[in-house]
Automatic annotation (TrEMBL):
Gene3D superfamilies the record matches: P-loop containing nucleotide triphosphate hydrolases
A GO molecular function held by the record: GTP binding
Key word Coiled coil present: yes
Stretches with biased composition (Basic and acidic residues): 338-376
Span list, region Disordered: 334-390
Name of the protein in its database record: Uncharacterized protein isoform X4
Keywords noted in UniProt: Coiled coil, GTP-binding, Nucleotide-binding
Gene: LOC101883468
AIG1-type G domain segment(s): 78-223
Polar residues composition bias: residue spans: 377-390
Similarity annotation: Belongs to the TRAFAC class TrmE-Era-EngA-EngB-Septin-like GTPase superfamily. AIG1/Toc34/Toc159-like paraseptin GTPase family. IAN subfamily.
Amino acid sequence: MSWSKGKVKYGAYYDDLEMDEETPLIRAQNDEADSIEKPRLMVLGCDDALMDKACATILGERENRDAFKFRPLIPRKASVGGRKVSVLKTPSYWLEHLKSYYIFSNGVKSITYEINHFVDIQLYPGPHAFLLVLKNMKNSGKEHYLLRALRDVFGKEILDFCMVIFLYEDRYSDPQRNKCLKKCKNRHHLLQNTDESVNQLLEKIDTMTQQKSSRFYTNYLESFRKAESYFREEFNAEYVERENKLRGEKETAEKKIKEMREQHTKKVTELNERIKDEQNGFKIREIQLKKELNALKIRENQLKKKLIDSKIKEDQSDKLLVTDDLYTTGNYEEQNEELVKRDKKLDERQRNLDARPKELKAGERKLTQRDAESSEHPQTTAETPSACNI
């Protein structure tokens, strides 16, 4: 962590402050409960004796006379009511500087560096309250210049963390005429030399800081907010760009999926039509095969009839030949032998004719079996006609 001198302005943020996620400021802001248990108080005033007494009273060092002599630039710490309180006394000559300049802004410039040093370094990351110590409510001096100087250096928001401390009660003074009270929106406390009074002061500081976005004042809070806003805008822009890119990729993917579905549906439709056409072709082929089978059966019956007719004609012609041979041949024995041979031939032919119907029946069974097979396997039935023709 490195800090530059003087007031830090937005724009010089990256040069003046090297920040990561674990800077003490971020940790302090994220842990408000811990920060309020360790209050850091900055005491302002023009009277060293009054400021010393206020510091000693707050830290519980009222019995130690040496502790009344507080040196500026060095914070004092003590445990008060279970809290670790840090008190930093500022130089009393600040008010003298402010009053010595004819132009007030020049006086502010003369002590700006020291004010920044006290706020940013000694009470890092920032005080919970700025306590302006006055003797009583009577408006006797120019102490409100100190509040004006804080406002000119850090902005008017710092006045929301300021409170007036009175060490003595004054019942006859009008609080409405006190300029310091006006700038602190009437926030004040009568600090008495008791623990109860100190605890009441700390409770008032708690109440004052609870209404703020941060429980303590820091010179860099606005810079951090602006940086946070800048990074948030950058993140949102990147997020929108990424979202648009993802949306485009999603639309492209959805379009591609739609095209693939359409192609798939088209292919399925074409395949179904092809299957349907093939099934229709198989049915037509089956009908043709049945017609061819019926034609073969008719042809077979015709052949059977022709075979029977030819057998009858052959028997008749054989009988006529036998009769003619008996009358034309004088040699009876030869004719008898010839008749015997012819009878044998006729018997052999008869056996062949008797065996032919069995062969025809066997062929008919084969045709029937092929017909059944062709109905179960249409693709193989195309071979039946050629087989039958053979």
